[in-house]
Amino acid sequence: MAGLLGGLLAESQREDGSLFVGVEFDFPSGTWRIAGKGVSSASLGHYEARVKSFGTLARVPSDRRGSLVSPELSIQIDDTDLRFAKLLGTHERILNSAARLKVLSANISPVTYYTGRLYDWTRGSDFSWTLNVRPPDQALTQNFCRKVVSIANWPKAADDVRGAVGPIVLGRHDSSGMGIRTGALPTLAVKNDANPFYRAVSWGRCLEVSRVYKAGVLQATSAYSVIYVVAGGEPWTIVSFTTDPGEVTVDALGYDSVGDGTGTLIDKPTDTLKWLLVNLIFQENTSGLWFADSTAPVEAAAFDSVRDDIAMAQGAGGQPYRMSAYFNSATTGNDYLPKWAFGNRCHLLWTPDGKLKPKLARVLASGSYITSPVFREPSDVAEIELAYPAQDWVKRVFVRYGSQQGSDYIDSLEVADPLISVESSESLDLEAGPAFK
């Protein structure tokens, strides 16, 4: 924003300076440029005098439970000449057309202040229309687990897995971390008619299949092969057997940062969410080689910054925050994002240019109740300083974290103040929160 302010400030201080606000919509028939009065931009040309009110725009982060808020802008236009009404009359597909709020000048290039989409419009009684704009959030309402075991791609699949969702695997899945050694992940019998017999671990290429179990019994590496099969043009991670293995489970490492096995494991909380947004939520990856961050409406630098902030919060010698995620049923972005934000002490918000970014919630000691609680977990006992607002004071919190498949948890943590009696406690399950590895 520094460049924006600097350019606008210099223009406003000129004797012949000119600054205006305009909005443009990318309709199928062409870009429609309108403003409060007829103005000409230095590079974009004329904006029609049509806007009666631009409404109010506010940046709103997700709430304390992580629910994302999409700020809306309501632009009221004059339609005395029925131009917009005629546009609707021709049945032009204007829903979800890109919209941009710009700061204009006859002397300098325009600056985009807000980017969104036209999602609704209402008619007024005085030849006016209100055009409602919000961020490009429609993808968040759609199921992103769209990879399935289809008959076309897997004609020899077992009957009970036809139509099943191809699992999406991120992070480390290790059954020994849960106190058992029978395999953290199930597999799908995608070829079950003859040698070779295929058990699918995931859609896409997992970085590693660490251990394989048949009916809960660990198998020697000579009893199977891990291969990568392309079905319907998309890669799958497969455990192959020469005889029918029956029920197979595995421990595995999920996707790497490239998609072909040459990158590093995606297991940081912010990297995990960014990968989902870029490769499955805002667009659908079919090649198995991951899209560049710039191809989706995410502010990649903010994700990287929060990742570094979380790493710094560990302190010297602290164990790194990791997380795992496993999806094998219909899930939308609006389902998962609040769980991720709540579990990782972050807020998500839309930037003015229509991108998602995370912000790490800060805990300040000022005006807060401070004590030295005891952290009790199976692997560690330690005392640390904790500060939190007195009005949000709870006496004991029991948290389960390190979710495996969204239901089983690697570990648990209890926080309590030893100086007071405990009458009640709060239990929290961090379904999309970090674990300590």
Structural class by helix and strand composition:
mainly beta
Tell me the total number of β-strands.
31
CATH structural class of the largest domain: Mainly Beta
Which architecture of the largest domain does the CATH hierarchy give at level 2? Roll
Q: Termini distance?
A: 38 Å
Q: How are the strands ordered across the major sheet?
A: 3-4-2-1-7-8-9-6-5
The portion of residues forming beta strands comes to: 35-45%
Roughly how many Å is the radius of gyration?
A: 27 Å
Unreliably modeled segments: 363-393
Shape: elongated
Mean pLDDT figure: 83
Helical stretch tally: 5
CATH fold name of the largest domain: Pnp Oxidase, Chain A
How much helical structure, as a percent, in the residues?
10-25%
Could you describe the largest sheet, including whether it forms a barrel?
9 strands, mixed
Total count of domains: 4
Q: Would you spell out the secondary-structure blueprint of this structure?
A:
Layout: H1 2-12, E1 20-27, E2 30-35, E3 39-41, E4 45-49, E5 51-53, E6 73-78, H2 83-89, E7 98-104, E8 111-123, E9 128-134, E10 168-170, E11 172-173, E12 185-186, E13 188-191, E14 197-203, E15 208-214, E16 217-218, E17 225-231, E18 234-241, E19 248-253, H3 269-281, H4 300-313, E20 321-322, E21 325-327, H5 333-343, E22 346-350, E23 356-360, E24 368-371, E25 374-377, E26 380-383, E27 386-389, E28 396-404, E29 408-416, E30 426-429, E31 435-436
Parallel strand pairs: 2-4, 28-30
Antiparallel strand pairs: 1-2, 1-7, 3-4, 5-6, 6-9, 7-8, 8-9, 10-21, 11-19, 12-19, 13-14, 14-18, 15-16, 15-19, 17-18, 20-31, 22-23, 24-27, 25-26, 25-29, 28-29
Helix pairs in contact: 3-4
